[in-house]
């Protein structure tokens, strides 16, 4: 069967075994004689799956009992607005750390609902030292994006915000390595990278942050109301929830969990940066080593003409969607959990071949 290595930033590559399972179960899910696409979100089959998914996620990530796990619509960007609506009710002062496109957009949206203080702003190659950050000790929360998918910049450690609850957009980094949930007040991730397909957002929120939504908050995006209803206040995106369930099973049963997948992810990304850094400048990534994304690797070629050739020839080699985001151009390889190490090996082989062919 024709399958490429898909390096897209999301919607992204899915494990073949997950797709095969979805295919096998499509016409008759759990012996109901109907497909997951046709089944009600209030049936016992669906609700049991949702409950078991939560249990599996709690065990996999290690989510303490004083956190709620929600499955909501709105993608990532919806929650850029729903977060200030839900968390900045009583105290409207909020902190934002800007490290790239997604955190900038989150801050921009938050300005409609809260008083946004910019703590720090990253350059194209690094994040300023924490000694220069202007944190507000009275902020309702401090927001950051651990891994910026477009700019390829990653925080090298979790920001320390003392008593101020930390809110994190883990859309492109969730489940890529072990995570200490207790450091956060709220974690959210849109699903189309490591959690399956687009249409659902996983949101993990500490109980004490639940009861402060502004009146304007739409009911279905009111985290407290959704927590009370087990994420079933309205029709949940059923198929994306099911795909998340399959992804979690795959990660646990076939990959051995977070510590194991993290080892593979570290090897994959090390090979790719080595290929860039050892290319005598043919490929370049100017982010300082400490801040380089461990998941989304943007890189440039000597000129636009070579970039075009690179993308076309890579496609012929079975390496797809290596174009960078339209805002920054260049090339980018996203190495989510479903990208096998063999895919990175093939990319590195191709990059070396291409550089040799076209180096001046
Ligand atoms: C880190 C991050 N945050 C937010 C988003 C936006 O997610 P959505 O398109 O689901 O709104 C993306 C999308 O790629 C992302 O990478």
Relevant terms:
Aspartate Aminotransferase, domain 2; 13 strands; two-stranded parallel sheet; 9 helices; 7-stranded mixed beta sheet; single chain; Aspartate Aminotransferase, domain 1
Structure description:
It is a single chain. By secondary structure, the protein is of the alpha/beta class. The protein has two domains: 238 residues, Aspartate Aminotransferase, domain 2, CATH 3.40.640; 102 residues, Aspartate Aminotransferase, domain 1 (Alpha-Beta Complex). It is built from nine helices and 13 strands. Strands 2-10-9-8-5-3-4 form a seven-stranded mixed beta sheet. A hairpin with a 4-residue loop joins strand 6 and strand 7. Helix 3 packs across helix 4 and helix 7 packs parallel to helix 9. The longest helix is centred in the last third of the chain and has 20 residues. It is globular. The model has no long low-confidence stretch (mean pLDDT 97). The structure holds pyridoxal-5'-phosphate. The site of pyridoxal-5'-phosphate has 12 residues, from loops.
